[in-house]
Amino acid sequence: MIRFEDVSVTYEGAAEPTVQGIDFEVPEGELVLLAGPSGVGKSTVLGAVSGLVPHFTGGTLRGRVTVAGRDTRTHKPRELADVVGTVGQDPLSHFVTDTVEDELAYGMESLGLAPDVMRRRVEETLDLLGLADLRARPIATLSGGQRQRVAIGSVLTPHPSVLVLDEPTSALDPAAAEEVLAVLQRLVHDLGTTVLMAEHRLERVIQYADQVVLLPSPGAPPVVGTPSEVMAVSPVYPPVVALGRLAGWTPLPMTVRDARRRAADLRHQLENAPKGRGELRDQPHKTRTRQPSGPPTPVGALHSLSVTRARIQALRAIDLTITPGETIALMGRNGAGKSTLLNSLVGLVKPSSGTVRVGEAVPHHTAPKDLVRKVGLVPQEPRDLLYADTVAAECAAADQDAGAPPGTCRGLVSELLPGVTDTTHPRDLSEGQRLALALAVVLTARPPLLLLDEPTRGLDYAAKARLAGVLRGLAAEGHAIVLATHDVELAAEIAHRVVLLAEGEVIADGPTADVVVSSPSFAPQVTKILAPQHWLTVSQVRAALPPEATS
Q: Which residue intervals are annotated with compositional bias (Basic and acidic residues) in the record (predicted)?
């Protein structure tokens, strides 16, 4: 159905091809996962299937890409629209109408389908993706995850034979991600739809893939094979594979079920681990450079906070205190109010009732130039913070705005994005790389309170590990961190505390281990594999085992 024949893509002004030696085939009716570190060209490969590369992006494509027998060099995207449906990393860039129902119908209108056919397909898609209650909602009022589901639905309604998906679950909560993946499975197995998908959160999708195409490094040819074959050599792999490598299991497990069947000996070793190592089962300890003599002064506080937006009550009577050195993970379904809570703390949303304080400041009454030194927000859409033409210019502006010594921002960029040059344009970075650049810009001011909205969206495992290291360091220095995330593995790795939201209300607030271990949706893979023992991460398991067990 999809065939790459020795394909390379070189963009204008680039010294080297972004991808080269791409040669593989996606058979009809298979789900193929495109994996690899951030910045290796996965989005470029996907764009070549829909014709966006090079017809829209520019650059030179050598070799040949065919989809259902059509050569994408001679067929422009509009001439492939009846065959290929594409959802990119940024749902907002896809939308052309104002409401959910209109967006689902738009693609079919463009293809000239009959009104009765369009009506039936819209209803089917609303049910498939759990969007029926949102059908009349303006898209501007939806959460990031809700927008992602609408974007997927809008390409499903024309019934394309090929779906190309770039990070389709990145903005979805675990339950919603499972729903979307179940829909994709149904399309593949029941309708014979061919799916090519790029995804960094391999723990969500690896078990559904028929094949994995790995791009191991920029410009390197792909490694193609079954999930277990590719994960054995891949530089990126999910926690279940990391645990399998640690335990020496062969073949490597791809699912929690497979791992649990092999984990009896490992659970026995951990049960008998020395007492000192057993303490690692708890969530990370808060450390600070200086211990306060009394109770710490909160860096942020919400009291009876309620927020109503577009006649929808997004938050209801929220009470939350944030102390120095504390990392809090806000979790919950899409639309639960996580982003609204963060926006309230940074002054972008005015309370309908209740109070918000950051230090002694009231955010929505404080000038931005003063607020930036008290609280910083890295939004879901990093482009909202990036406006310069080069990385160097972004960093220089961040240093100036924060009153920081020259080079402060650039040092953070080097830590988060090794290898990115000063002359790189932010738009030429991948989604994950732009997110890391935005984080560096915000961190330049070293605000006591740092807010992050889905900070691992678009990040590979290595980049996520670097981010976790930076956040741990900031917490150790006394910075308070609040992150809204669907990434249960990140929460397990760095959060001292988890706050669960549902319908704008706090339904759980406590230590990470206490909250996530009992949750089938928010428990990390290691917890599920080693239950009833309360381990959260592979790093905890590695530290708890005797050295000879991990050599």
A: 267-285
Pairing type for strands 194-198 and 162-166 reads: parallel
Average pLDDT over residues 245-272: 92
At 525, list the tokens: 């893979």
Residue positions counted in the chain: 551
297-308 tens-digit pLDDT: 899 999 999 999
Question: b/e map of 492-520 (b: 16 or more CB within 10 Å)?
Answer: bbbbbbbbbbeebebebeeebbebbbeee
Give the Cα separation of 500 and 509 in Å (integer): 6
Cα separation, 13 vs 394, in Å, equals 20
Fold of 300-523: Rossmann fold (3.40.50)
Q: Does domain 2-238 have CATH number 3.30.200.20?
A: no
Q: Distance of CA 36 to CAs 50, 222, 236, 250, Å?
A: 20, 9, 6, 22
Q: What residue segments make up the domains of the chain, in order of their start?
A: 2-238, 239-272+524-551, 300-523
CA within 13 Å, CB half, 25: 5
- Candidate from 194-198, 232-236, 467-471 with smallest mean pLDDT: 467-471
| Spatial distance between the Cα atoms of 16 and 379, rounded to a whole number of angstroms | 32
Residues 6+ away with beta carbon under 8 Å from 130: 149, 176, 179
pLDDT > 50? residue 367: yes
Assigned token pair, 209:
């893939």
